[in-house]
Fold this protein.
Amino acid sequence: MALPVEEWRLCAARRWAALEPALRERLAAVSSSLHDTLRLGCGLLRPEAEAAALRRLCRRARAGKEPAAGRFYREEGNRLFGRRHYGAAVRLYSQAASHEQPGSPEVSVCFANRSAALFHLGHLEVCLEDIARAESHGYPDRLLPKVLLRKAECLLRLGRLQDAANALSTMENKIAMDGIMTSPAHQTLLKKLSQLKIKIHEKESCPQPAQEACGDIQRKSEIWEENDSISGASSSLSLNFDTERGRHLVANEDILPGQNLLKEEAFVSVLYPGESHLLQDSSETAWDTRVTNADLYCHRCLRQLLASVPCRGCSYAKYCSQNCADVAWEQYHRTECSLGPLLLTLGVFCHVALRTVLLAGFAEVSRLVEWSHDNDKNLHNPEARCKHPSEAPDTRTGTRDIPGCNDNGQYQSSYQSVFNLLPHAEKHSPEHKFLCMLSVVAICKQLQEAGLEAAVLNRESSEQWSKPETCEKTSGELSPELKIMAEAMLRHVLQLQCNAQAITVMQESVSGDGAVVNKKPVRLATAFFPVLSLLNHSCCPNTSLSFSGTAATVRASQPIPSGQEIFHCYGPHRCRMNVAERQQLLSQYFFECHCQACCDELESDIKSGVSVRNSFCCPSCQASMQGEDVLCCSNESCAISVSRESLSCRLQDLQQQIKRALELLKDKKAGLAFLE
């Protein structure tokens, strides 16, 4: 969900409608800067109305740690483990661990139980990691021998004989300290211990010959010469600027199909919660046992999760490793953690905006916001007017004056480049800008009320906050520093409508017999890629885009002669929809597409008087259907798909019925026409 939940959108719309006409007019003024918009609207979030409504909505997004939920998920995991549904059990143990406090016996049991399921699935290395987690979180001594036995068996299967022997030795010492073990379970444990010792001895006596590496053919690495002026781009590209196309990339030499053109790590990305999928054999309960993207992918690097590491403070954020968890906490999650329900309610765009300013740091955000204020002043002062993104830079200075470039003329994947992406503030509707402004103010007020301002401003304690004598904040008013952060966040939320890049993964649809019936790209995260954003759109692009975690790679999909612009498809492609559908979807980017594909189809439509392709609407939600033989609804929240042939047959039947009804009406047989 990119935008806030519908109830909050309606709440903001009611607030907008209730404003004094004069204030509404000032907020809607095209000439208003983001600074003016925030200054005028910062106090419009009323504690007893909008803020209270937002708190009620946030209660639906449960992101805190609930011990009762931990017990439930652990018991559900045990139930499915007993039925040998090990994959589902792993997910439920992960859910349980996310609700338990770090260092508690309960979380250590979750990791130990999950290690057992992973062992049965054959994920031995990950099983060992979970055993180590269980031990580090204080796994109960009385249960430790069973876990040490599992550890030894993993190490034995991995061929790490000495480590396996050491684990068994530790286990024997533990048993000796605990005294005589006479129960049937203890006797079974001792029997397995003896069997493992024999296996280790056999393997040590008959070492297996080292296997020769097969298929170890060194792939010829592609020659990659990085661009001196554009970070992550090939040296075969140049950055240009003109008033019609804005910033854009052009080939400065002939490019072959398949050639790498750009490799860029996202400046910021936020996982898209995605659709839910019921776990196998899950019963209805007060706690949700469905699996979403939040359970399947690392919240930092977007790697697919097998055994997640939970956040220390909330139940929502999960990571692929302790390193990812620690880095995320240090960079941004220590601030975001307590805001989980609010960020889920306000949508991914607000979350991306907050994370962007947290990653940039207050000093850099403040510098660029102040620069934008000076630029706004110069725009209204013809004598001191400086270059603006809508004006062509002085070509004599090369790329140095192109917006986003640093003083050396380099365009880097940096916060400065993100900040200089166009927000198109004058093109958004006043109602939408008001919704975005109210949302970012709500986030900043929550930060202030939660005592997180020092973390946001990258300071150790509140004692270090600046307190300007001329601008003291009143009760409930944002501090000057948080107003700066709010203004930058508002800019980023508006930018995202045109500059957000969806990070996608291929998702398979599987039939009842396990056969893959369909594969389609599914949104995994929303991100800022400032260099990738330089590429203009074409409905028939000359590049292809792929992702690996948070990294994007752009390759040439056809020969590109020197001097030709490099194009990327923003979503609407000529192979998936007709020109009218494409133009409608592209309107969100505030431009009309004049690519070759659109021009050719429009010319063809004018000549023939009919559309090149029939367009169908979804029978469920009325959104446009996309595809070739099988049409899928373009609305991501709708899963309707149908064959083009069946829709064409239904259309022909309707056309025949209409034709027959018109004939009956012509013959003055209205009653029969109605029946038709």
Observations:
- The longest helix spans residues 644-666.
